[in-house]
């Protein structure tokens, strides 16, 4: 493949870093992270090589769903700072060559949002049709509660106006009626507002949920709901030509493909690869690359300039919902055997390093995969230093503990305040801030932080990885994944051993010495064979 595209398709080889302002750095000593603190930490991202920061919701909120329950789309949660602090932060990030994107929550608002307060006042409210109301929960309406521990229905009865409203998530998050043109216009205005303040796009929350509402409920006669997504994309592109929509679409590959745009125009720029992520965990549990090979072989090529977004962990439960029940049970048994580690029957509320017994070889191999597989890698804060979870904290908050900056057992360098005021306390034990923190790892060449910094710089140096064509090479040992990303002139061959034993493989490289791009060590290919250490990972560059 020839690299004819221009570099303003910046997302193709971006390194995205997701964080929650609330848990990243407290800049005013009140126990809550804020934009001032975040801005002071900008050098961390620069040293790591991050090119795009994804901010989780930072808008005013009663905070019953970690900010995904919004009460004002045009402001900043006062606990986190002001609009001025936000703009200073974006400006500083830009100065260091980084873009900023943020969550866009179109599916629902908080029930405390003035729109919903008005809507539930009376059936004649001008905002009544901004939400989805029914006299009775319809028999043919959407199905499946997302949070089975909290909700039993998608419909909540409103006493005052004697109708039910739809809520795909919690009952305190009523679904917006995106079939209503007024809602559509407002959401475009929200996007325009934040683009004007310097955002380079959005991580779009819960995409299939709001599109489903667009088509199937209030306006069954509406054209394809995907047109709505295409409209949002077109609007964004008019305002900011290189802005992106990174979509949360946890569906099988063939269904996800539609969300990139299938004829009605461009829709999402990137979709998270939930299927590949889950296959990887199954492979890790089995000590076999086969599930991931299978997923990659089935993974469709996104159309036009769209791209997959790859990840190891996000801020939610580590969902395993696309695995079969038996497969999920295997991953649970390997990585989260105690019911306390599991959530909603479909996921794990753990971070990677404790799941992999803290084995540095294994952990490094996983991140080597993240940066070598085609797709845009997305890191979740704390992954770069190998943070663990705090199971003493409820639900998904076990993986949303403060960023660990310093070996301070109490405040982790996150805040000098009383930890009782923190959004969640840092873990104790082997993953406490005394053991896992940025300060200790920063100047240690053997640390995970140094490893991830190295992976990022190699990934950025080698456009074959994000731009090249993927070939999966046959491996005599199913524990080993061999993949190659090739352009017309050059290729990178990457080898990953999912097992804890040394093995030999056939990397498809000529006999003789080859330099591993990661360690700069020379390894020998003899009669087509190469020795791979336990959990080994090697990258080779070749000119063709
Ligand atoms: C998906 C987000 O990732 C999750 O954290 C949130 O609870 C739901 N959407 C509802 O907004």
Query: What is the number of independent domains?
Result: 3
Query: Helical stretch count?
Result: 17
- Tell me, what's the shape? globular
| Overall number of strands | 22
Low-confidence stretches: 1-7
Mean pLDDT value = 95
Small molecules bound: 1-deoxynojirimycin
**Cα Rg:** 23 Å
Q: Superfamily at the CATH H level of the largest domain? A: Glycosidases
- Trace the largest sheet across and list its strands: 1-2-3-7-8-9-10-14
Helix share, percent: 25-40%
CATH class of the largest domain: Alpha Beta
Structural class: alpha/beta
Distance between the termini: 12 Å
State which percent range the strand residues make up: 15-25%
Largest sheet: 8 strands, parallel, barrel
CATH architecture descriptor of the largest domain: Alpha-Beta Barrel
Domain Glycosyl hydrolase family 13 catalytic: 18-400
Protein name: Alpha-amylase family protein
InterPro entries: GH, GH13_cat_dom, Glyco_hydro_b, O16G_dom_2
Pfam families: Alpha-amylase
Description:
This protein has three domains: 10-105 and 183-459, Glycosidases (TIM Barrel), CATH 3.20.20.80; 114-166, Oligo-1,6-glucosidase, Domain 2 (Oligo-1,6-glucosidase, domain 2, Alpha-Beta Complex), CATH 3.90.400; 469-543, Immunoglobulin-like, CATH 2.60.40.1180. 28% of the residues lie in helices and 17% in strands. The protein has 17 helices and 22 strands. It has helices at 21-24, 35-40, 42-48, 83-95, 114-119, 181-196, 207-216, 226-239, 253-257, 274-286, 290-298, 325-335, 352-355, 360-372, 438-442, 448-461, 464-467, and strands spanning 16-19, 52-55, 99-104, 133-134, 155-158, 163-166, 201-204, 244-247, 270-272, 307-311, 318-319, 342-343, 347-348, 376-380, 469-473, 480-486, 490-497, 503-505, 512-515, 522-525, 530-532, 537-543. Helix 9 (253-257) links the parallel strand 8 and strand 9 (270-272). The radius of gyration is 23 Å and the shape is globular. The structure holds 1-deoxynojirimycin. Residues 65, 68, 105, 169, 205-206, 248, 316 line the site of 1-deoxynojirimycin (NOJ).
């Amino acid at each position: 493949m020839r690299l004819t595209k221009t570099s303003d398709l910046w997302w193709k080889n971006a390194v995205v870093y997701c964080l929650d302002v609330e848990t990243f750095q407290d800049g005013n000593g009140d126990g809550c992270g804020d934009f001032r603190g975040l801005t002071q930490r900008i050098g961390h991202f620069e040293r790591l090589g991050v090119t795009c920061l994804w901010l989780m919701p930072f808008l005013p909120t009663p905070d019953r769903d970690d900010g995904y329950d919004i009460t004002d789309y045009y402001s900043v949660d006062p606990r986190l700072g002001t609009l001025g602090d936000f703009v200073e932060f974006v400006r500083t990030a830009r100065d260091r060559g980084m873009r900023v994107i943020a969550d866009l929550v179109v599916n629902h608002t908080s029930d405390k949002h003035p729109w919903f307060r008005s809507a539930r006042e009376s059936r004649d409210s001008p905002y009544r049709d901004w939400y989805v109301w029914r006299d009775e929960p319809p028999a043919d309406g959407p199905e499946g509660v997302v949070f089975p521990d909290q909700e039993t229905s998608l419909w909540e009865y409103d006493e005052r106006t004697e109708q039910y409203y739809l809520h795909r998530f919690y009952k305190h998050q009523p679904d917006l009626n995106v079939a209503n043109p007024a809602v559509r216009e407002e959401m475009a205005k929200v996007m325009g507002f934040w683009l004007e303040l310097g955002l380079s796009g959005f991580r779009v929350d819960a995409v299939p949920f709001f599109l489903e509402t667009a088509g199937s409920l209030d306006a069954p006669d509406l054209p394809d709901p995907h047109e709505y997504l295409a409209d949002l994309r077109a609007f964004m592109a008019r305002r900011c030509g290189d802005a992106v929509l990174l979509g949360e679409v946890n569906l099988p590959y063939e269904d996800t493909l539609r969300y990139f745009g299938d004829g009605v125009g461009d829709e999402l720029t990137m979709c998270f690869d939930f299927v590949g992520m889950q296959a990887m965990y199954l492979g890790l549990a089995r000590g076999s690359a086969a599930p991931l090979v299978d997923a990659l072989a089935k993974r469709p090529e996104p159309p036009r300039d769209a791209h997959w977004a790859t990840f190891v962990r996000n801020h939610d439960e580590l969902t395993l919902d696309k695995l079969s029940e038996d497969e999920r049970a295997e991953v649970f048994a390997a990585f989260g055997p105690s019911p306390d580690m599991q959530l909603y029957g479909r996921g794990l509320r753990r971070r990677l390093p404790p799941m992999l017994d803290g084995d540095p070889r294994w952990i490094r191999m996983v991140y080597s995969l993240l940066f070598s597989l085609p797709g845009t890698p997305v890191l979740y804060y704390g992954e770069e230093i190998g943070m663990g979870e705090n199971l003493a904290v409820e639900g998904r908050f076990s993986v949303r503990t403060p960023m660990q900056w310093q070996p301070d057992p109490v405040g982790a360098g996150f805040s000098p305040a009383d930890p009782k005021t923190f959004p969640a306390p840092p873990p104790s034990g082997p993953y406490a801030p005394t053991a896992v923190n940025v300060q200790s790892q920063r100047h240690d060449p053997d640390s995970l932080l140094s490893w991830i910094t190295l992976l990022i710089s190699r990934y950025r140096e080698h456009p074959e990885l994000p731009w090249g064509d993927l070939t999966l090479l046959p491996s005599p040992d199913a524990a080993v994944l061999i993949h190659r990303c090739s352009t017309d002139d050059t290729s990178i061959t990457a080898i990953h051993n999912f097992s804890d034993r040394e093995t030999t493989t056939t990397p498809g490289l000529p006999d003789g010495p080859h330099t591993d791009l990661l360690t700069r060590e020379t390894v020998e290919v003899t009669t087509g064979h190469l020795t791979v250490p336990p959990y080994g990972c090697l990258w080779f560059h070749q000119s063709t």
